[in-house]
Amino acid sequence: MKRMVALWVTAIVAALFTTSVLAANLPVKAPPAPVVAAPVYDWSGFYAGAGAGYSRGSFGWAYTNPVPSNCCAPFSSSESDTVLSGIFGAQVQFSFLVLGVDATVSDFINNHFATQQFCVVTVPAAVCQVRLQTTDTVGGRGGFAWTNWLFYGEGGWAHTTVDSRVSTVTAPSFDVATAGRNGTYWGAGIDYMAGVIPHFAFIIGVEYQHIDFHNTTLFSPLDNFNVCPPGANCRNISAKEDIVRVRLTGKWNPFDVGVAGPVRY
Question: Is residue 230 included in any domain, yes or no?
């Protein structure tokens, strides 16, 4: 009997020892990696920044009451320049929809005149020139946000000053006329949220704007700026501008206090 008990005890101890050895040699399964929630990009907030790009102004010039009729045929001209812009705005995100207001103030590096030679049949022949001054736009924009990308369209009110002048080699700028002009614009763009810190984000984008200032009558100083008698002084000028710019803005959202889980930028 004692011998049987001893055999059973020996067998149990051996089984326990073998199980321990086998368990020690088994690979240890690594604990599951923590799940990191993807960030939620919030496009709501106020933004300001700067832009730079290419501008092309297109003009049409026609005398209101030309006499004689062959003195001065209508013509069109254009001029290109580098444009620098200040950018301001605010927007709110509703799920994937982003709505806001946007304003720009744009000026030109060189601001050359678009020039038409022999625009008036005189001796010596006259040269007509026209250009735009600082261009302002204020309007709404709406778009579709996909993570840190925003695709949007825009449109609204625009304002500029149209400068025109006529000169000859013997009488530089003898007929200068200027008028402020309101217009409309539409455009589209893409923004990318490139860098984020709490409540603040850097945004880089590309934007296109088409601005139409329609037609405006410019009265000549030779007519005391108030009448359009027969002759080659009073003129109707149409003006349009196309701008392609790169935008760099900083967005600030003071109302974003943060939420548990994903980080909101």
Answer: yes
Rounded CA gap, 218 and 226, in Å?
9
Distance CA 107, CA 82 (A): 9
Residue among 187, 188, 181 at smallest CA distance from 211:
187
**Looking at residue 202, which CATH number applies to its domain?**
2.40.160
Judged against a pLDDT cut of 80, whether residue 258 lies above it is answered with no
156 Cβ contact list (under 8 Å, min separation 6): 137, 138, 139, 140, 184, 185
Task: Tell me which residue range forms the domain holding 225.
Answer: 45-252
The pTM of the full predicted model, rounded to 2 decimals, is: 0.79
DSSP for residue 184? E
Structurally, the chain folds into a number of domains equal to: 1
15 in any annotated domain = no
Buried-exposed string 33-46: b where 16+ CB fall within 10 A, e elsewhere: eeeeeeeebbbbbb
Q: What is the pLDDT of residues 109-135, one digit of tens each?
A: 999 999 998 888 776 788 999 999 999
How many C-beta atoms surround the C-beta of residue 97 within 10 A? Answer: 12
Provide the sign of the torsion angle of the four alpha carbons 154, 160, 166, 167, taken in this order. Answer: negative
